[in-house]
Write a structure and sequence with these properties.
Arc Repressor Mutant, subunit A; 11 helices; two-stranded antiparallel sheet; about 280 residues; Endonuclease, Chain A; elongated
Length: about 280
């Protein structure tokens, strides 16, 4: 447990020794440098500099001088301190980099490497959604994104989820409810996420090997991916006898009605393409 906490602290930019020293103080304080070194496993030769850095950052504070003892900043205040520090640094960095003239084509196809980076990007996209989210994924990835999807739904965003596996009930769900473990024997996890018909994340969702996932704002690619999800849902509807008309995507209002009329005119003898009223009358 303590090693896990130390690793999380190291991910925030602290060294292993700094993480151990701070956690040791949380468990036993106040304490001298010698006591911190003994309890945390930080070498005595390094403990002086480690405590100085933590004190300079504001994570620990000297509370007596003879002998000098230290107490940790409480976790809640430590988190608040970190948030304020990083927000300030990010703001300063943004102000600095904004002076550079950059002309990047956002419609290019970008690669995102690694499972956690993929999940972070997916969460970011869902949180930005204004109108609709179309997601095709397996249960593991849907569970990872469940909190953000539910928040989006509460904001009034249309959430449509397709899966071959059994998934939580979030938004409009179309699922074959197959066993994820059985499918893993023959398929790799995949994800397709379309936000507001503007942004796409698509690729293999591999937790164990760092795969590259595509991310783009290219409108043509975004719509191809969105229609791929709709096609899967349409096939599901045909197989399961479920009405999926309210999830079909139209780039322009009335285009599907026009296409239907043209197809019925071209294949006038086909019973499948007859208007619904005619089929019922027959």
């Amino acid at each position: 447990m303590l090693e896990k906490i130390a690793k999380k602290m190291m991910e925030l930019g602290f060294t292993q020794y700094e993480a151990r020293a701070y956690i040791s103080l949380l468990q036993n304080y106040p304490a001298t440098r010698y006591e911190i070194s003994k309890r945390s496993g930080v070498p005595r030769s390094a403990i002086y500099d480690v405590i100085n850095r933590l004190e300079k950052f504001g994570a620990v504070n000297a509370i007596s001088s003879k002998p000098e003892k230290y107490a940790p900043l409480p976790p809640e205040q430590f988190i608040e301190l970190l948030e304020n520090r990083y927000k300030s640094k990010i703001r300063d960095f943004f102000e600095s980099i904004s002076d550079i003239q950059v002309d990047l084509e956002m419609e290019n196809l970008w690669n995102i490497s690694g499972y956690q980076n993929m999940i972070l990007k997916a969460r970011e996209m869902i949180n930005k959604a204004r109108d609709e989210i179309y997601l095709s994924a397996w249960n593991r990835e849907v569970e990872e994104l469940a909190s953000e999807l539910r928040k989006a739904e509460r904001r009034g965003v249309k959430v449509v989820v397709f899966s071959f596996t059994k998934i939580p009930s979030i938004g409009k769900v179309f699922s074959y409810e197959l066993s994820e473990s059985e499918l893993e024997k023959v398929w790799d996890h995949k994800i397709i996420l379309v936000r507001d018909r503007e942004e796409l994340l698509m690729g293999e969702a591999n937790r164990h090997y760092p795969r590259k996932v595509a991310w783009t704002h290219n409108k043509a690619i975004v719509m191809i991916a969105a229609n791929h999800i709709v096609l899967d849902i349409t096939l599901y509807g045909l197989r399961a006898g479920v009405d999926v008309s309210d999830v079909v995507i139209e780039s322009h209002p009335g285009e599907l009605e026009l296409l239907g009329n043209l197809l019925r005119e071209k294949f006038s003898l086909s019973p499948v393409l007859k208007p619904e009223k005619e089929r019922l009358d027959n």
